[in-house]
Amino acid sequence: MNPIQVTRIGANFSIISEFMPHIPSAALGLFINHGSRNESKENQGICHLIEHMLFKGTKTKSAQDISSLVESAGAVIDGFITKETSGIYCRYPVDKFDLMVHLIGELISQSTFDKTELEREKNIIEAEIKESEDDPHEQVFNLLFEVLFYDHPFAHSIAGKIETVRSITKERLEDYFHNHFLKSKVCISAAGNINHTELVEKLTRKSHILHTMNQPVVLTPPLERERTFLIQERSDLTQIHVAAASFTYGYSDPRRYALIIVNNILGGTMSSRFFQRLREQEGLVYTISSFVDFYSDIGLIGGYYITDANQYDQTARAGLNVAIHLKQDGVTDEEFERSINYSKAMVAINAENPMSRMIRNAQNQIILDKTITVEESIVNYDRLTKEEVNQATDEIRPDKHSVAIIGPAKQVEESMNKLARTGKIIIKN
pLDDT digits over 309-367, tens only? Predict the structure, then answer.
């Protein structure tokens, strides 16, 4: 019997739950298929501001009332926003089910977006943006999205820009919330010791969101642009942070399983080729990894490392050599088996947490419009062949990578000019 149950209410609203009877708690989340990708240039950061403001007071509760109520119930609650999704999630003891369902419904339907709280929250978000810009790890990925996506909304920072956030009024925020944010595809997802029928009944009776006329949002797909190297000079840093990536297929492409295996082998684990050569054998870095990010219609594959400026050329060339050899020679039998086992184990371990199950179910429902059980995910890895994984190495395209660098970058400009024979270089002070 499939432990995942789905109830659809209209074309763009679904309630999904996964029963985990041996856990004395549950996770519940409201997911809205609307994120920073949906924002115009003038509205950069508005979804993030909405997510903050949902916890700043309703018609009957202050911000402190909300936090005190949740903590008294032994629960946790938070909001989130990504490039494509926003919402609220909570984890609670099973006997607090009614309380948490009602609270999430109240936050969505009765938040007041108080003007005083709004101005205070703008100050907080300004501090958050400045903190992010000071953190080279976060900022290098913000810059990477800029050079990958240029003027496409994917290039926007989730938190937005200080000037755009400052310009948002209460009236504009409320208009966007009701006429754009809540008009997107919605999924309420739960996992743990929870009764699906009871969940549907309570949401149908209490949730304002069910009465929203959801409309599908038409997204503009990003286009691959000219390869670009963006260097931000930070003389206060002693090392340089480097992030590089190129486009690949999106979450809806079943080949993503093979690409996850490739990523594990390239730089996603401690036994990976990047880690073993650049850190363990040559001692060039402390931090190095590769990554794959999947979105609804596009993905990214790339790498990130930190190294001394005087070792940039050697580090970059060693990383390039590793990537080229993986493409040319393919994966070994031992690498293939090890990475398959690792990926299956990660799926199984994450499945022990109702929060993880709740999130993965919502993601699959929103993007794929279907459910994928933990067992089905494991089978998808078992079905992979070494040939399919080797075909996926074609997605490693270092000659197409755009690159962002933060640090004492003047010391690496000569090396950058050698490496960037194709593409353009931008210096950002």
Answer: 889 989 999 999 999 999 999 999 999 999 999 999 999 999 999 999 999 999 999 99
Q: Are strands 186-192 and 228-233 parallel, antiparallel or unpaired?
A: unpaired
Bridge partners (DSSP) of residue 403 are 229, 244
Q: Sign of dihedral through CA atoms 74, 80, 85, 88?
A: positive
Helix (H) or strand (E) holding 110: helix 97-110
2 neighbors 154 (Cβ within 8 angstroms): no
Q: Is 370 exposed, middle or buried (0-12, 13-18, 19+ CB in 10 A)?
A: exposed
Beta carbons within 8 Å of 387's beta carbon, 6+ residues apart: none
CATH number of the domain within which 57 lies = 3.30.830.10
Same domain, residue pair 107 and 50:
yes
Which helix (DSSP H) or strand (DSSP E) does residue 405 occupy? strand 402-407
pLDDT digits (tens, 9 = 90+) for 243-296: 999 999 999 999 999 999 999 999 999 999 999 999 999 999 999 999 999 999
384 contact partners, CB below 8 Å, separation of at least 6: 257, 258, 261, 340
Phi and psi at 152, nearest 5°, equal -75, 145
C-alpha 406/C-alpha 410 separation (Å) is: 10
Convert the pLDDT of each residue in 10-48 to its tens digit.
Answer: 778 899 999 999 999 999 999 999 999 999 999 999 999
pTM of the model: 0.93
- Do 61 and 104 fall into the same domain? yes
Tokens of 32: 């809205």
Instruction: Identify the domain boundary among 180, 211, 242.
Output: 211
Q: Distance between CA atoms of 423 and 418, rounded to whole angstroms?
A: 11
